[in-house]
Design brief:
Layout: H1 2-27, E1 35-38, E2 46-61, E3 66-68, E4 71-72, E5 75-91, E6 96-107, E7 118-129, E8 132-139, E9 177-186, E10 189-197, E11 216-217, E12 225-233, E13 255-272, E14 278-296, E15 301-313, E16 319-322, E17 330-331, E18 345-349, E19 351-361, E20 372-384, E21 391-401, E22 408-422, E23 428-444
Length: 445
């Protein structure tokens, strides 16, 4: 706890230093730029470019038995680039739209030299009518929940609820798949459906063991996958030119949405049966959620809340340990927990997940000349088939919106996660909890 306190003090000192920089910026009337070229006078035909950078300074209490490059470590401090993205998109004619994104995720000190940015999205889209657009390419259009495709530049928490990107890195490229899709609006109903060819699990970034009694992803040729997400908009409508759903509107819109979605794929999973034969099963992921972003008063304050329920069927006892940008790469088997190395915890598995998040944006210019604050808390409560105890991850933090927007943002967050091990009866039970403190600096335009 002393080390966590030291990191918090260091973070607050950094915030104080950046406050003076922000104040000087306001004096010079620096504004967040926009790169946009209009092709007609109305601006309906255009080309636009955006940029995002998120840098982390982090202190982590490690899971038992963790090693970094073979060196035993119980805690560690690291610096990493959580995301670095460049986007280019445009409405070229009344009917033709394109979108592409290039960048890097999770660039850490463990990164192999000479590896780096890659293609995230490459989409072309055609408007048949106002109610239906069709498109295809490498894309995140589809299901199953709001933040299966998060707009990471304006999320409220330190990170999106990444459990909703349930197959990330296994049969997709950071939640993107090669797909054809249809999307549009029918009155207050916004919909998206996709038919995808999942990427080969043989090239998964997560090691997949040989087929065994516990279900895992099949390394045979993948079947086609269907997915979709629909939501009803009770108040203002959201813009969905791209698949990524906003995390906050900072009181600029009045939003209340109710959504449902799915992802389904036959023979996606396999395990060995009682007689030793290979049993192939479907993957079915379901979700229902409510999202609200509501202005309060007339000074720019806003309440943001999100609640999601997900039911995941990956087959018998499937469980995936995960966390963002894990700063460890090994574990001593003799002293290891079920969590594995570093900061991983039971994030995805066969079972049920309840996620809840709430935050409050204070009035505009709460800190005169230095923007405003947006504190939040969130929790992921999971009942997985293979675990005896519930897996509960808690997080709280505060965003400093330096210019009153997400264009320049400093976030300080504390995450508390469960650690599991097998008891004498062979049951997977929680044995302890560990912390992670992160300070993130973001710029986006």
């Amino acid at each position: 706890m002393k080390k966590i306190g030291f990191v918090l003090i260091l973070s607050m000192q950094s915030i104080a230093g950046l406050a003076q920089v922000a104040k000087d910026s306001v004096k010079q009337r620096i504004t967040i730029p926009e790169l946009k070229i209009n092709f007609n006078k109305s601006g309906t035909h255009y080309f636009k470019g955006t940029f995002l950078s998120q840098t982390w300074l982090r202190y982590s209490d490690f899971n038992p038995g963790t090693t970094v490059d073979g060196t035993p470590k119980s805690n560690y401090t690291d610096i990493g680039i959580r995301r670095w993205r460049v986007q280019a998109f445009g409405q070229l004619t009344d009917r033709i739209f394109f979108y592409t994104q290039f960048g890097q995720n999770n660039f850490s000190f463990l990164q192999p030299r000479g590896t780096g940015a890659f293609l995230h999205d490459a989409v072309t889209e055609f408007k048949i009518a106002k109610q239906i657009h069709i498109g295809g390419g490498l894309t995140a259009w589809g299901g199953m929940s709001r933040f299966s495709a998060p707009a990471v530049a304006n999320i409220m928490g330190l990170d999106a609820p990444i459990y909703q990107q349930a197959t990330n890195g296994i049969d997709d490229q950071f939640a993107r798949k090669l797909s054809v899709y249809a999307k549009g609006e029918l009155g207050a109903l916004n919909y998206r459906v996709a038919l995808s060819r999942p990427m080969s699990a043989r090239n998964s970034t997560v090691p997949i063991p040989p087929v065994n009694p516990v279900s895992n992803f099949s390394t045979e040729a993948p079947e086609m996958q269907t997915s979709g997400y629909v939501f009803w908009q009770f108040f203002d409508k959201e813009t969905t030119a791209v698949p990524y759903m906003s995390g906050t509107y900072l009181g600029k819109k009045k939003i209340l949405n109710l959504g449902i979605g799915w992802v389904q794929q036959n023979k996606a999973m396999w395990h060995t049966g009682i007689d030793g034969d290979t049993v192939r099963t479907k993957m079915l992921l379901l979700g229902a959620d409510v999202f609200a972003d509501l202005p309060i008063g007339k000074k720019g304050a806003a309440l943001n809340a999100y609640v999601a329920y997900n039911n995941f069927d990956f087959g018998k006892n499937y469980l995936r340990m995960n966390n963002a940008m894990n700063p460890a790469n090994g574990v001593n088997a003799a002293s290891a927990s079920l969590n594995g190395s570093g900061v991983n915890f039971p994030m995805v598995g066969t079972g049920n997940i309840l996620f809840a998040q709430v935050g409050y944006k204070f009035k505009d210019d709460l800190l005169p000349g230095n923007g405003t604050l947006l504190p939040y808390v969130q929790m992921q409560y999971s009942q997985f088939q293979v675990l005896k105890d519930a897996a509960v991850m808690c997080e709280g933090g505060i965003n400093w919106l330096i210019h009153g927007t997400h264009g320049g943002k400093l976030t300080l967050a504390l995450q508390n996660r469960p650690v599991f091990a097998s008891n004498s009866g062979g049951e997977a039970v929680q044995t302890s909890r560990k912390n992670m403190v992160v300070m993130q600096y973001q710029i986006s335009f």
